[in-house]
Amino acid sequence: MEILSALIVLTLIKATPIIYAALGGVISERSGVINIGLEGMMAAGAFTAAIVSYATNAPLLGVLAGIVAGGLAGLVLAIAATRFKVDQIVAGTGINLICAGGAAYGLVLVFNQPGASKQVNALGPNYWVLVVLAFALAIALQWLLSRTPWGLRVRACGENPRSVAAAGLDPLALRTFAVTLSGALAGLGGAFLSIGELNLYSDGMTAGRGFIALAAVIFGRWNPLGATAASVVFGLFEALQYVLQGKISWLPADAMQALPYIAALIALAGVTGRVRAPASDGVPY
Amino acid sequence: MYRRALAAFLACVVSACALSGCARHRGPARGQLTLGMVTDVGGLGDQSFNDSAYRGLVTARENLGAYVQVLQSRSAADYQPNLNALTNLHYGMIYAIGFLMGLDLDSVAKDHPSQRYAIIDAVVDDPNVTSITFREQDGSFLAGALAAMVSTSHHIGFLGGADIPLIEKFEAGYSAGAREIDPSIRVDVKYAGSFDDVAAGKELANLMFNDGADIIFTAAGKVGLGAIEAAKARDGDFIIGVDSNQDGLAPGKVLTSMVKKVDVAVFDVAKSLRGGHPISGHVVFGLKDGAIGLTDFAYTKQYVGSERRARLDTIERAIVSGKIVPPDSRAALAGFKPVSL
User: Roughly how many angstroms between the first and final C-alpha of chain A, as a whole number?
Assistant: First the structure.
C-alpha cells in the first residue's frame, strides 16, 4: 500500500513537466508548426526561473519569468517558422542548442560557476499547485481547441491554412501566437523542474523530457487530454523504474532505466495504431 | 558603395573580436607549461569529480605557472573531438577526466604517439598515457562502516550514477564496510542511470529514505545534489557525499564526504612534468597517499564521537596494512567476510 501511494505521487511529479511540454507540443502542432525545440524551451524556462528566483528571492516571480523565457524562445521559433519559412526541424534544433548553450554560459555569468547554479529559493511544498495546474490546463486547452472559435482557427491552420486566409484571418499570426504559447508552456514545465521539484538549475537537467513530450503528443493523437494521459503513462514508467529498482534482483538497473523509453517506443510503434498528424503540420505557409 | 563595404567589414572585425574576447585573450607564453583537460559529460560544476580535477589544474596554474584550458563534453560524442582539439594545440599534458573516455583516449593516443595524455579512473595501455586510478573501494569501505555505526534503523542506501565497474567499486566497498560493523545490515542499492538528472537523485533518495534507510551514500555526480536536497527536508536522515567535500552544501545533513582527491593526482602529474621525470604508466592512489578518505565531520561532530572516529582509524590502518581488503565488485563482495580487529 505504501509502495502504491509512493508510486502515484512519484508518477504525478514525473509526469508534470512532461505534461506541460506535451501541451505545448499539441498546441504548436495543431497550428501546423512542429516544435522540436521543446527541450530547449524547457531549459530556458528552468534556467530563467532559477536565476530570477535567485535575484528576487521570490520563486513565484521565477515561475513567471520561466514562462516568459519559454515564450520568448517559442516566439523565436514562431518567427523563424512563419515569417522566414525556415525548415522547422532545423529551427527547433537550433533552439535546443541555443537554449542549452545560453544557459550554460549564463551560469558562468551569473553564478561564476559552470555546470550548476547555486541553491535558490524554490516553491517548496507549494509545487503541488503546479501539478494540479498541469491537469487543469490540459482540460482548459482541450476545451479551447475543440469548443471555441479560436480553437477552430488554430486547428484549421494546422490542416489547411489557406482556408483560414480565405476566411479573412491571418494564419501566420495564429501560428505565431500558438507557438509562443507552446514555448511558454514548455518554459513552465522547465520552471517546475528547477524551482518546483528542486531548487537549482543544472546543465542537462531537462534530461530529454522535451523529446519524451513530443512522443506523448503523437501517442496522445494531438489532443491535449490524450497527450496528458500519455505523459502520465511515461511518468508512471519512470516512477516504476525508480520504485522497482533493487527489488527485482534478476533485472539489472540498466534494464529498468530503459523502461520509459521502451514504453515510448511501443506506444509509437504499435499501441497508438494509425495516427494522423494535422495535414499541414510542419509545412510552412 | 566602397564606404559601406568598409563599414560592414569593420563591423564584422569588431564583432568577431568582441565575441572571441581578443582584447584580453592570451595564448600560452613560449616555454610555459601547458595543461589541457577534457571533462566527461558530468562537466564542470558537478561539485564532484570534474570540479576536483579542475582544482588540480588551478593549483598547477598558481604554483607552477601553468597555462590551463578546459573543454567540456556535452555528450560522449564530444570526447574525441575535444581530445583532438587539444592535441592539435600540442599541450604539455592533456587530461581525460573519467572512465567513460577510456576507449576514445586510446584511439586518439595511438594516433598521436608523441603527445602526452593522462586519464583518470581508467587504465589505457599506451606508452604515452599515464593512467591514474584510485582505490575508491577503500574510502567507500570507511563510508560504509561509518554509516553502519550512525544508522539507527540498521538500513542504509547507496545511490549510484550509472551501473559501471567504476561505480561498482564504490558500491561494493560501501556495502562491505557496513557489514564489517553490522553483518546483518540492509543496504539498498539504486542507480539513476545518469550523472546529471538532478531530479532523479531527489526522487530516488526520497524513495530509499521512505523505505527506512537513514543514510545514503551517493556516487552519482550532479544526481547527488538532488539526493542532498531530499535529505534537507528530512530529520535524522543523512547523505554521504562523494569526490569533493560536499559537507557544506547542506550543513548537518551531509554526514561526511568520501573525497577522492583527483586534484592531488592531477597536480602531482603536472608537477612531475615540470620536474622532468613525468609520472607514467599506471599509478594507483589510495588511503595512504591521502588521495582518498573521509572529510573531517565539520558539521556533524555530534553524530561522530571520538569512539567512532577511533574505530574508523583502526579500520583505516587495517586497510592500509592489507588486513582488510575491501572488495571492488559485487562478485568480490559476495565473498567478503567481516574481519575481526
Answer: 54
Q: Which site among A96, A108, A120, A203 would you substitute to test the B interface, given the most B Cβ atoms closer than 10 Å to its Cβ?
A: A203
Which of A199, A203, A243 lies closest to B45 in CB terms? A203
**Whole-number Cα distances in Å, B7 to A152, A163, B19, B20, B22:** 50, 46, 18, 20, 20
Q: Flag whether A282 is in a domain.
A: no
Of the residues A245, A261, A262, the best mutation for testing chain B's interface (the one with the most B CB atoms within 10 Å of its CB) is A245
Q: Which residue of B has its CA nearest to A115?
A: B45
A200: nearest CB among B72, B163, B225? B225
Q: Which of B42, B196, B249 sits opposite A205 (nearest CB)?
A: B196
Distance from CA of B128 to the nearest CA of A (A): 30
Note whether B196 contacts A207, CB cutoff 8 Å. Answer: yes
ipTM above 0.90, yes or no: no
The count of other CB atoms within 10 Å of the CB of residue A177 is 18
pTM for the whole thing? Answer: 0.84
Cell matching residue B304:
561522530
b/e for A224-233, b at 16 or more Cβ within 10 A? Answer: bbbbbbbbbb
Structurally, what CATH architecture does the domain formed by B136-260+305-334 represent? 3-Layer(aba) Sandwich (3.40)
* Residues B97-154 pLDDT 10s: 988 899 999 999 999 999 999 999 999 999 999 999 999 999 999 999 999 999 999 9
pLDDT at B7: 54
For the stretch A80-124, pLDDT in tens is 999 999 999 999 999 999 999 999 999 989 988 778 888 899 998
pLDDT given for residue A273 in this prediction: 65
Residue B165 has pLDDT above 80, yes or no: yes
What CATH number labels B31-134+263-288? Answer: 3.40.50.2300
Interface with chain B: mutation pick from A12, A195, A198, A248, highest number of B CBs within 10 Å: A198
Partner-chain residue, chosen from A10, A115, A119, that has the shortest CB–CB distance to B44:
A115
What is each CA distance from B255 to A192, B17, B184, B209, B231, in whole angstroms? 29, 49, 22, 15, 11
The number of distinct structural domains making up chain A is 1
